[in-house]
Write a structure and sequence with these properties.
Blueprint: H1 8-11, H2 23-28, H3 38-76, E1 79-80, E2 90-91, H4 95-101, H5 104-137, H6 139-154, H7 157-167, H8 174-181, H9 196-220, H10 225-233, H11 238-249, H12 251-266, H13 270-275, H14 287-297, H15 301-332
Antiparallel strand pairs: 1-2
Amino acid sequence: MTRDEPDSQALGLRSPSVPHRLLPRLAFTGPDRTGGFSGRRYRRMRETRWGYLYVAPALLILFAFTFAPTLFVVYISFFNWNLLDPPLSRAVGLSNFSQLLGSADFLHSLFVTAYFAVATVALGTAIGLFIALALNRKAFVRSATRLAVFSPYVTPLVATSIIWVWIFNPQFGLANAALHAVGLPELQWLESTTWALPAVVIFTLWHNLGFTVIIFLAGLTTISQELSDAARVDGADAWQEFLWVTLPQLTPTVLFVVIISTVGALQAFTQFYNMTGGGPLNATTTTSYLLYEQAFVFYRAGPAAALAVILFVITAVLTLVQLRLGRNRDASA
């Protein structure tokens, strides 16, 4: 064999176990000068091109309706934007952000948003986990009630919020009828600056509870039954079993529920628009509702865009913090 001839043994050309009909294919897929396999590389490149071609429509839609509008909002946040005649818009730099940060309305909306988010996330997670644990112990109860619990979540938010406006009606609503039946004083609910926000929290908990319960039921299916049985054999009661066996294994599920619920609470708008309109006396004006007022009531697109950017940053930071805390907990465990 000369120096210029390839090593046929390395290519498998003279191996008695290789059929002669495969020799051309093996010669084609042999190692090239770079040490790779040219045939495999060619197939991967071809599959990659087809893969990009298949996802291109989805990527175009995502760019057109998500990324491009987001970039445009960031752009106009630095302008005193004229919605009716955009060429008349003028750059103002960070003026929109500085005005918002010094605005009493914005700071009040942050407080209302924080109140709403903490209440709905904490209570929603706790109540959803409790109901999921109760349903998980009785198979026939779980099958019979899962649809009933999940139904409010799949019902349109607009329709259910209008129904709850009638439930909270101070004259003939079911909420005051229930309070009167147990001897408690009737409330003004949505017409009261004290009870309007708790009323919206109650409605949101009812509407989103089905999603939380279903997620926790799915998480409970991953719990190791052997660990639970071992804990009961060692004398652990129901609370100890939940605290030391069930809850640590549910940590990823709890983290997912908390993150999704937090993002949803920060972006909540429909129930405030339909049930209170931000009132009474701005008692339920969240950051999202203030954004709507700035953009579509007062036609101040620049401050509204700046408010959207601030809300996005707050949401992203809280999400990253929650993810970091979850990872640190997993690492310490």
